[in-house]
Amino acid sequence: MALDHAILVSLLEKPGSGYELARRFERSIGYFWTATHQQIYRVLKRMESDGWIDVRDVPQQGRPDKKEYSVAGPGRDALSAWLGEPIEPESVRHDLAVKIRGAAFDDPAALIGEVERHRRAHTDRLAHYLAGEARDFGEPGRPFDGPPDAERELQHVVLRGGIAYERMMIAWLDDVLATLARFEAGH
Amino acid sequence: MALDHAILVSLLEKPGSGYELARRFERSIGYFWTATHQQIYRVLKRMESDGWIDVRDVPQQGRPDKKEYSVAGPGRDALSAWLGEPIEPESVRHDLAVKIRGAAFDDPAALIGEVERHRRAHTDRLAHYLAGEARDFGEPGRPFDGPPDAERELQHVVLRGGIAYERMMIAWLDDVLATLARFEAGH
DNA sequence: TCCTGCTATGCAACGAGTTGCATAGCAAGG
DNA sequence: CCTTGCTATGCAACTCGTTGCATAGCAGGA
């Protein structure tokens, strides 16, 4: 179970509250891991009582206080141990693929709108990734020729993975649309 | 929740027992949906008591009897209704991406072996898909120019999606390996 | 003033998914 | 004969993930 580890990594990149983590899981981390605030608060509570993370009460003005979490020694060790052990290739769950195969027993053409909707979601996300890449990793921001920064480089390669995934999906959804079009009424 | 619907689609493609379904979920269906025999038996029981599927006891020689399930009217209706309603784009969970970003706080080069292992798993799966494509959708098996068979065409487009996914993953893992190599000891 | 909306945290209940274990018949090999 | 292994089905316990709801302070607009 990697939610623990996803949270640890995020807190190592930058300490923050449960709420802030939930927001990150809607953005950057959300590109490869989803979690609701409920899961996050529950895991934070458990990791704190296990001594994996430290809490610090931060009073704020103009908004409610927050608890800022940061990774403690045991948390770092747990992450390190997890990094060292092999994980299984992810188990896949593509609702849309189920729908496409199921469409053979219904009206295939009726699925076109749904597929187009998904295609839009993927082009939107691709645009979002590309904007993020230009902002955070664009040439202008890197005029110095210092030593490579591991954190930055590794974030970039993960983002490139997201970009490759979205491009692949868009191309495939075009393939799906072309296939569905062949079954349109009258043919 | 689409496990119900994945099972319905599979039973429409071909009626079978819980055990046979479990095997399909290790093969063709498993390319886009995973499920253990426990989940399958549980769902079959519920769908049967809801009248979505019919059972038929099939005595066998040389092996235990089996219960063969097939889709009944209400099951077909339920599938049809589900096909008609929009679904959310899948939520992603990539353990490997978490590990890669986490590696910045450990030894990045130590991840190389793990990434290579995943790369091998993906090349194996790609080879498997391509063999299946050649077997089931190769030119020799389609010398007739009749009307397009929806079931077959849609299975093929889903398989092409799997192939595109594996190719994308292999290319990305090469990118990851090149990135990790830059952090190797001494650099 | 009241309503809406954002930050911030949390409980309780439920449903889905995982893991360990159990049974039972039959085949094949040592 | 005994063990291993495959087909075939299932229970029980547990963990993980989702959903609905609740609280509470403060900001901004109608």
TrEMBL record, chains A, B:
Organism: Streptomyces bikiniensis
Residue span(s) of domain Transcription regulator PadR N-terminal: 7-80
Protein name from the UniProt record: PadR family transcriptional regulator
One Pfam family linked to the record: Vir_act_alpha_C
InterPro entries referenced in this protein's UniProt entry, alphabetically: Tscrpt_reg_PadR_C, Tscrpt_reg_PadR_N, WH-like_DNA-bd_sf, WH_DNA-bd_sf
Residues of the Transcription regulator PadR C-terminal domain: 92-180
Leader sequence residues: none
